[in-house]
Amino acid sequence: MKKSLFIRSPLLLIAVLTLFIFSCQNPISIDLSGDTDLQAEGEAYTFTDPVSNTVVFVDSTGKQTVIQSEEGGRQVFCEEVIDFVVFEAGKSMSRSAGDGAPGMIAMILGRRDNGRPGLWVIYSNRSVKPVLYEDGLETSELLEIAGNRRPIFWHFGWNYEALKLSPDGKIIIGYAEHKEGIDWHKFSIEPGTTVGVYWSVIEKKDGRIRLARARVIGIRDRQWRKNLFSGVDKSLYRHTHRWMWALRLFFAGWYDQYLTMPEDFLLSETEGEYRISGTDQEGEAAIATLTAKRVLSIEKAPDEPDENQPPYPVTAPFTFRSYTEDSGLKTFQLEIEEQGGLADPDGDVVYFKSSLLPSWITLDENTGIVTVDTVDSHSSEEFSFWSEDEHGADTSESPFKITISVIFG
User: Mean pLDDT across the stretch 252-280?
Assistant: First the structure.
């Protein structure tokens, strides 16, 4: 009877068992340094561990950090990355960590193990912390109802979704959606209505991150406040204002302009201002400019330039030219099939182009004049000519062909 490989090789059996036990105890520690498809050398990246279904952040040095946090007596895991930003070594969003406090190295916007969007901060000591809300609640959850005891004043059936982090980590854009819709007498919201929102990410003196309440990405005349609260005690306004921001989602029609769906951050030349592309309430492309505290403007996005069209094709009143040998220089004129007096539908400058020409034929690309030197030339060949505009669009796929023949005299 043949002995088992493991019986014959006890050392192999021990090695296999050791590897199995180690892999079970360390499901997150995965070396992906050899996988060139995942990262460029020296760049930070994230991946999801297939065993624990948890996101792992890998910095530029290859060090791995599992994205999880202690919240309310339980471990909360990040299962999917929505977006992330990496900060300069030893620096937070707005200050240096030279006072001994750990600096932020990255911020992860992802999806928690309950399916809701969340925000985590990775510090230089490899600790992972969720954010703080204005009421002191510590949670990674972005939903506005997180930890609130009076959800009716804060939620009203809106579901919040995060989309993007600004490059400096100070703004999160997303949207609030009312999936079911509302029909209260004369007041109604269509199912699936969306309103663009943004969160301000604020760094505290101790290096922790606080998340402000979501704000609508919208502009409206402040006169509505004066009309609504005229004659009302200011202290009452201050108390009601704390929950009235949520009502603004319902009264989006009060806004002169607002984004229904933000898309991405655009380059801004002013520090502290953020330009966001998206779709406005009229369904048109728009750009919102905002700061951490208020929306400055919402303007229609400039029309994209029309796609450049090729010029009109080359033509001539003939397709064959014959010359006798030694008859000297002969010329003929190529033309453009103009329409409405234009050689190009976009009004561009048009040039004449040709296939490779022999030394005895030349083409003036500006005028379309072809010159044939008949001296010592005995040939009959077909040549192609086409038009090309100043931007490179041409008609080379459908050229005008002419046969040029030089015969004995």
Answer: 89
Residue of 138, 159, 83, 79 whose CA lies nearest to 111 = 79
Read off the pLDDT of residues 139-189 as tens digits, 9 standing for 90 and up.
888 766 444 434 433 456 778 899 999 999 999 999 988 888 877 766 678
Is 389 in contact with 342 (CB distance < 8 Å)? no
Residue 253 pLDDT level (bands cut at 50, 70, 90):
low
d(CA 215, CA 172): 10
- Which residues touch 395 (CB under 8 Å, ≥6 apart)? 310, 311, 312, 313, 314, 386, 387, 388
Q: CA angle, corner 23, sides to 19 and 29, nearest 5? A: 125
Residues pairing with 85 in the sheet: 107
CA pair distance 40, 59, nearest whole angstrom: 12
Euclidean distance between CA atoms 243 and 267, whole angstroms = 33
Instruction: List, in sequence order, every residue forming a beta bridge with 65; answer none if it has no partner.
Output: 57
Q: What is the mean pLDDT of residues 19-44?
A: 42
Instruction: Kindly state the helix (H) or strand (E) to which residue 49 belongs, with its residue range.
Output: strand 45-49
- Residues 37 and 45: their CA atoms lie apart, in Å, by 11
DSSP assignment, residue 394? B
For residues 246 and 154, the answer to whether their CB atoms sit within 8 Å is: yes
Please give the domain boundaries of the chain with CATH numbers for all domains.
Answer: 42-300 (no CATH), 314-407 (2.60.40.10)
Mean pLDDT of 351-368: 94
Tokens of 204: 């505290």
DSSP 343: S
How many Å apart are CA 80 and CA 54, to the nearest integer? 7
CA distance 163 to 175: 8
120: which strand partners? 108, 130
